[in-house]
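Same chain as my last thread, 654 residues:
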Amino acid sequence: MSVDGWNTVLVLGGIRSGKSEFAESLVADAPVVRYIATAPEGDPEDTEWATRLATHRARRPGSWTTEETAGEPRRLADVLESAEPNETLLVDDLGGWVTVLLDPEYQPADDVATIAELAEAIRTCAARVVLVSPEVGLSLVPTTPLGRAFTDALGAANRAVADACDAVVLVVAGQPAWLKPAPTTAAAAAATVSASASPVSPAASQSGAHQAGTSLLDAEPTPEVQLPDVLTHTPPAAPNQEPGNPWAAPTMALPMVATGLVIQPGMELPMPDDYAGPQAVDRLATLDVPGAGLGVLDRVVGFAAATQGTSTPAAWGSVRVLLLNGDHAGGASAGTVAGESARRAAQARAGRGALARLAAESGASLQVVDTPASAPMETQPALTGEQVESALRYGWRLAEQAADAGVQLLVLGACGAGTEAAAAAVLAATAGAEPPAVLGRVITDSGEIDDAAWMVRCAAVRDALHRTRRSPRGAKDVLSELGGGDVAVATGVLLGATARRVPVLLDGPVGLAAGMVSRDLAGQARHWCLLADHGQHPAVRLAADVLGLTPLLDLRLDLGEGANALVALPLLRSVLALAAALPVHPSLAGDADADRADEPQTDPEPDDAEPDDAEPAYTGPDYTDPEFVEPEPAGPGPTRTGADEQPASGWRAG
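reply #2:
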């Protein structure tokens, strides 16, 4: 096959666009090809349709074999699953397959389940597969119900298959345009590998230059860097645990143009499961738990259930901490010691300090990510537009690499100078907050409050907002003018994690500011975020209220971004493990009656039978006499079964 490195390819195109010819060219070098014909024969009197089929058959070489799946739509998935690694399959096309799927002869049928089965068969197929499908989504909406049903089903099939395939190409007027991934020229392939390992500018990507550096601004040619940069601790795999993260399978691909990946407003990313979360919380009420249950921590179970798509979620096993390190110049960093953030980052890289210690104890991997330094926001944009695009793509790739490594939870933190002022500026631009109300107090190394530095920060944010008062307030505009590098990378991480269904544990102003910005790009991102503790930080509290994130705890920790979340992580894991392991309460178990029925039964003794160890009859005073009878209580109390019973307290009447 001419598409090296890819096992499955989807070829899309309109009518007479040349999609079938292009697909056939992709398998022209294969020695043997199995041609999977999905279209029905049609009306015998339809000569035009018969001519189309004859044209397709005439183009096939004599070495190809043909299989028909029009008689049973589900057979296509079986053919793909049974294919051998040395085979090459050409499926032409999915439009005919959907036509058969919607045929009344096969109704009622679960079209969604059948499409999902096909996508899964493509993912697990060992052979090389090229699939052809018409792209009808660009045409007008059909006027008939049957036409609309066809376009809807075909659109769903194309999306599912495109997600499952390694590559997707759109053929327009005979010209192929690769949608997933980028064109596979040598230079483009090198640039793609380089971009996945380090942030580069679009210009460097187009030239094929391989750049990897310590920041997005100062990239120098170095050998290829493989993420993650730093892993202080990697937890061992649990017994019988499946590799990878089954609920973080790829769900979509970024839109692509000639310059690379595109992150744009209004992206449709996946949402958590609407039903699994409430079902998991309802299930907690049936567990054999002494006391009132988990309290507010039941939200952890509901969140994990929704993001994992199951009512019995598992505790997060593989966790990765992303520590973003990037300074903000100007008044935003007033009151901070020069080089302090670099020292914190180097400390984390070396496996020392609070964050690294907590990560090791939690079994979490720690990755330090250098983000571009931000210019003084009060005098100029913090980042250029090109840097914002590169930072967003870099953050997205960080999340993708974590998902590919089997990470089940991301913890987002930052350690740059001036991050709090940048977050305050973002909140002022996106939520209308007053900077003094969301700027935390400046604490010096000696533990004293530096009011002068706090006022300088407020002035910097005020001047930045005044400078940009007539600027647009779009997501990328806010990142460029105010947010800076760390907030831009954090936003990309949130979007990439959402696309791969990986939940994110937020901690600190940078993550919450990224959550505010991500609303304009993809509103689904906030539903994949969890806030363990707000730490009494005013910016975090305000952003959490706007995003609808209720903190689970109120520990008032201030150990630094990322460290606060790691303190709460063992508790959250324990809650999930407990909810998954506890059995249902016996009173609610469905087989409780059956268990009691299996117990051995004894015949009751006759009424006149007297046990061998029975006490002799009482010959004392007759307590049934009204003079000695204990009066019944007027209100609720213990039930008396006979006048000869003694009170529970041990005292005797008379």
